[in-house]
Amino acid sequence: MIYSFKGYIPVVHETSFVHPLAAVTGNVIIGKHCYIGPGAAIRGDWGEIVLEDGVNVQENCTVHMFPGKSIVLKESAHVGHGAVIHGANLGRNCLIGMNSVIMDDAEIGDECIVGAMSFVKANTVFESRSLIVGNPAKVIKQVTDEMIDWKTKGTKLYQQLPADCFATLEEVEPLREVPKDRPEQEAFYQTLNEFKGKE
Fold first, then answer.
1. Does 178 reside within a domain?
2. Residue 139: its H or E element
């Protein structure tokens, strides 16, 4: 659902996909090839939210801020299932792990990886290529070329997903039994450990 608020109407590029069960409100600008999953809430009611090209905000994420703020999720930022971005800026090609919380005025640098369930305190600044984990979150090491290559490949899947959704996603009645000719799905992406093993 797309909602205007106090005269602000969200801007969504035609190549981006916002799931009908997501809510995008007010002063929100969404660039090209972005994916917004079901249950996501992007609330530009009190300030501006900009998603640059290729950003994905997955299922049940929240993006919001205190009044008067403006935040940017830079190109190819990847926000995992259930994460909360509250008044923080995300760098280019970063990864925010599932169920992480990134608080107000935090700055996540380019190509950082934030581990699942991490808590980034308000006003915390992380330099580019930091691997960030914990509660409170801290840097444990630098992101390697191998890690960012793996992350980038995963984000490219989400950048293809809008086109796939436009082409094939439709509301249907469920089947009542499994068809005999039901195809198997391809394993076209590996965990980081599996990816490392193939290099």
1. no
2. strand 137-142
